[in-house]
Fold each of these.
Amino acid sequence: MNEVFEELRIALYAVWHRRWLALAVAWVVCLLGWLVVAMIPNSYESKARIYVEREDVLSQQMKIAGDGKAEIMRVRQTLASSVNLEKVIRSTKLGEEIEDRADMDAAIAELEKDVEVTSEEDNLFELTATVGKGGYSDSENAALSRDVVQKLIDIFREENIAGNRNQIADTMVFLDEQLEERKLELEAAEQRRLAFEAQYPELIGGSTTLSTKIQQARTELRGIEGDLAGAQSALAAVEGQLASTPPTISTGIVTPAQQGGARGALAQAQANLAQLRGRGLKDNHPDVASTLRQIDILRRQAANEAAPSSTVGSQPNPAYSSLLAIRAERQGDVQAMNARKAALQADIASLMGSQATEPEVAAEANRISRDYEVLKTKYDDLLNDREEIRLRGQVDTNRSAFKFNVIDPPVVPRKPAAPNRPLLLFGVLFVGIGAGAAAAYAMSQMRSTFSTTAKLERAMDLPVVGQISMTMKEAGRALKAKRLKQWAGASAALFGVFVILLVIEFVQVSAVA
């Protein structure tokens, strides 16, 4: 440990012994370093915070909102794209010295390094531009950094609105052309379909529709047969009850209206009809239609009965008259169901005959129907797409769903972001002092002198008897003191220059507007 301190003391003595050399080297290094630092242009940084939102109540309600994440990613990728940077260069002072494409490419590459887009959140971005051109003053560089950020924001906002409109317009033109082509094809297919259906009306819709019609007719026929069986059973039950019910009951003198039979039932049915019409029911009402059928049947039955007379005897049995009316209704239902059953059987036979005897025509019907449905579906899809695009264009024009808000607009920076000139000046001073000390120490190592007796003993491996101190006269001591003052003055001048440069730097920084 003592040897380390000894070597350190020797080194300090060597530097102090050659202090003028160390000071001269320090001056040279510091002056050159400070000159280099002074030539480094100040770089000014301007920032802006941007909030991007794709969600919009109107767009969501109309179900035409796009994917917000995709739009936000597009902002991040295209905000500082090469195309936008070129527009920035051409519209600012950066493009004043651009003469050819090579210069432009170099300027774009340099600006790409100086422009940065960082994401603070999913839809919050910070746009930073750093400008430090050697040919411009500090105020010009500061203003230029603000202009670059603002121009990027303006370009992106304009291109977003105009780009969306142009894209929508191009899409509308393409869809209109496709719709016109599909319209002509659909009209031709419709004409073929109408001509075929006029010739083969039973094959409307193709053989698939024909099979569907047969299946539907069979299903309806099965339903009619079931209903018919139920109606016949009900009619048989009514007839059984009618056979066991006397038509009249014994009373005193009766009038013709009170006598039973078909005439009495007819009178009752006519009274029911009048009551129904009095309620405002029309002839197409099911109850009125059923009563009318009942009256027609009773009229035919009453025409075959003998004319009634007002004699002493019996009066019509109300139960019998009611059963007659029910039987007439049941008979009408059975007749209607039989007629419908016969019609369905005829339709099924006709459809099956068409299907079996004309397979080629059925195949042609399938093809025509299929082509028409495909073309109609495509046409409807294109029509819906065009309407959605048109609506999206109106929304983007009148109330754009894409929100691009500048939260913190760019401002002219008042302090340079780089370089840290005070730190560089201090670093140069430190390096200069270190270089001077190193030069003095290196010079001492090249001279074969010994600073201490211990070093002499180690070098010669011989004992040192003693050492002689240097004595100086009064004139020598005065000269030594004078030279020491001169060296201290030169050293103070070096630190003074350093302080002056710091003051100049702070004054220049505060003067930037």
Note: Residues 164 and 396 are 8 Å apart (CA to CA).
Amino acid sequence: MGSTSARAPFLSLLTIVSLACVAAPVSAASSSTAPGAAAAGAPAAPAPATSGGNAGHVMDRADLEAFIDGFMPLALQTGDIAGGVIAVVKDGEILFAKGYGYADVAARKPVDPATTMFRPGSVSKLFTWTAVMQLVGEGKLDLDKDVATYLDFRLPQRADGPITLRNIMTHTAGFEEQVKDLIATDPKSLLPLRDYVANFIPTRIYRAGSTPAYSNYATALAGYIVQRVSGEKFADYIDEHILRPLDMQHSTFQQPLPQQFAADMSRGYQVASGPAQAYELVNAAPAGSLAASGEDMARFMIAHLQDGEYHGRRILPQAMAQMMHDTPTNMIAPLNRMMLGFYEQNYNGHRVISHGGDTEYMHSYLHLFPDDHVGLFVSFNSAGREGGSHVARQALFDYFVARYFPGPQPAASTVTPQVAAQHARLIAGYYDDSRRPDRSFLRILALIAPDRVQVDKDGLLTFSLIHDRNTQLRKYREVAPFVWRDVNSNWRLAAQVVDGKVARLSVDEVSPFMVFEPFPWSLSPAWQRPAAIVALAACLLTALLWPIAVLVRRRLRVPAALPPRAARARRYGRIAATALALMSAAWTGLVVAGITSLNVFSSGLDPVLWLMYLLSVIVYVGGTALMLWSTYATWTAERPWTARLWSLLLALSALLLLQVAWSHHLMSFMTRY
């Protein structure tokens, strides 16, 4: 499940772009009490939030409604989003909860914040972490014990140490990214939790505790440990120990969705102007299978803001809740850090702990301001045109903080222009994402769309992964040694430099659970990417010109006039070039199809993968051998220098494509990815 405003599940490719203007249907907003009203019992006029002496707006129901009513209808319409819900809590009560747009476009059913259920994706993880901490508080789990002691199957071990629950909760277990069978729509594809965690074990690519690398699998593993230790099925445990105490009557982890919730479940959409989609089923259930209403999520926020207590009912001991909120894992100072399950999104001098969540169609975010006793939850039921829901939820947070928690002007830079230019040149380049599929064919994503830091004409840095709301890349100016700040906001980029070389970097939005490291030379897109483009272009041009040349000769009745050996060399070279171009196009098409819809990456793809791997061995190995022979035969025959040079280019292209296929596992016969 996704975890940031910049990413849907696992996707380095999917940077968020513009809100496009379309006529999406937007209904009058609905509320659990009356249109425009917040939940009963909310304080009427809390004190205004302040920061650094700058007073913000008074956060009361009237001001929230005016602000959010001005934001949401336009966000839904321009983003082609069917509907959404927003809930704000303060001082232990629901201050504001309101639905916007439609839960079902065809039926013109409005969103009700009390009853309409959304899929908050990875926000579900907060419930899993809460369950873990409940059992830690009871002495049944130990955060620093080898998780293997809690399992009834074997995790592959590494010589550099075991995995602990603390590693899992801070996303430092070291697993590579894995997406196969993550989301399905057919209930027959839904796996029991034990089957999923025992049979879909990703490779560990980092030493536990060393590197943040967001992991849905690790969260599912933690959920299975809750199930094993408690003796209750995971979804039943959450029902009994979290949802019922919090009076979350319109929430469930059960899959498929129980019939009693069917009437309240919002439909999911790619875009509001398109058809409704099937209910999404999450095999890594503890990582993202929650369905919940906006007001139910408000109750969960209140419980955490009050250190585990909600209206006299406690779901966590105070010490366990405080441990979750206040135990940071430092990776790249001074960027935002990972807590135990929550991650920082600090802004304007205010402490913010959060979690985002994405299914394919629904997109959400939960933010807590612990020191201000405020919580904000937003969920949309559509991806929206060109990532509209991602843009909208990030914009809502930015405007919310600016309105109610303004901060002082950031300090001026302490770095001279000369040093800034030197540091910019040092950091520019391509970077490998710690949250990546590393040992499967999806490794090719790093070549298709690598993450890159560049220096613009004004000496500012851009990072290809992070865009502003205007769809333009954020521009970062260095404000302290190896710390850059976006010129239009307080979001930062920072690098960890060791012995004069960049070891890793990240940005505030994802730094708690994701870092970026320089590629090894052998895999660097700096040379591999342009070389692969040239190689594919050479093969494709050869393939396209082959039938054209044949047709021209026939029409003009010009004989080939080549000796038999030279003719065979030319023909075999053309066959090899065509096969290499087609094979590479097939892999690209498969990856793009899977990114477009995660349902493609399911067990049903396995026969296709086996065929692709087999053909890859034949094409990349056999085609390269054939191309080398063709080049040798061309050079040892009396051929023009142009033919010789072209054959040499094709031979080098074949060797390069073979290297790419080998290093990116296109011949690995790996069906776990």
Note: The first strand starts at residue 50 and ends at 51.
